[in-house]
Amino acid sequence: MDIKAFLTHVVKLEIRIRKAINTQMHGNFSSVFKGSGLEFSDLRQYHYGDDVRHIDWNTSSKGHGTFVKLFKEEKEQTVFFLIDVSASGSVGRQGNSKIKTLKEVAGVLAFAAIQEASHLGFVCFSDKNEKYMPAAMGKKHGYKVISELFRVEPENTATDLKAGLTFALQTLKRKSLLFVLSDFIDEGYEDLLRAAALKHDLVVLHALDKQEIQLPSMGIIPIYDPERKRTTWVNTSARSFKNLLQQQVKNRGGELKEMCKKWHADYVELHSGEDFVPALVKLFNARR
């Protein structure tokens, strides 16, 4: 698939989602990509009846009167993608890898954000930052984001989700709509993911592949780990191995989903090579 075909595919998927959501939500699709909070606007002198919680004590302490902070509604939203492009994402059948699915999902969401005039940016990471585009506004920038997402070819194979989350937390100075797209095959990232949920509007998109859950019985075969560049021989026909594999994937997804629920973050499970439009429609409906 070239960039033109990729963009055409993304646009068609976004139109499907928009039509489904606008039908179910009576035209409220735009609200998902608009700012939902308040930002500081100005100061004025305190008037009887003003909310005392809005008093700016630093300014008032200078002795020129009591002042309150004025706020205005945020009209624009920063949408930022943190995308795992490590080698474990290459798992998948007939070219439908996890990383291909994540790129398509990010592309669809980016195109939707463009239509709503959001600030848009991303970082693709392995165990280093593979590609970073700071958040900016405008359709030209938005199409460049989608184009660069399509072209990303990672240099490194390993995963460092902690470093990726740290970069996002340090880079995003104001509350943003943060999408984290990964298979989450890593350890020790939980505290930073929680910090992201507290600081930002967090959406976790968890990529899985059927081969990780239902590996066919092929006897004793070599399994290559593309991240560690190591081969291990396993008995794929052994029930104990199958049960262990399924339990590991189930535990990872269950724990991640439970953490998101606890932190009031959104969680979406994606399966490589499958139609993800219903999952995104469900996400947007839930966010409303």
What does this structure look like?
It comes from Aquirufa novilacunae. This is DUF58 domain-containing protein. By secondary structure, the chain is α/β, with parallel strands linked by helices. About 40% of the residues lie in helices and about 25% in strands. It is built from nine helices and twelve strands. The strands form four sheets. A six-stranded mixed beta sheet has the order 7-6-3-8-9-12, sandwiched between helices. Strands 1-2 form a two-stranded antiparallel ribbon. A two-stranded antiparallel ribbon has the order 4-5. β4 and β5 form a beta hairpin. The protein is elongated. The two termini are about 35 Å apart.
Strand portion, in percent?
25-35%
Form type: elongated
Radius of gyration: 22 Å
Termini separation: 34 Å
Number of strands: 12
H/E order of the elements? HEHEEEEHEEHHEHEHEEHEH
* Average pLDDT: 84
| Main sheet strand line-up | 7-6-3-8-9-12
Low-confidence stretches: none
What portion of residues is helical? Answer: 40-55%
Classification by helices and strands: alpha/beta
Largest sheet: 6 strands, mixed
Tally of individual helices: 9
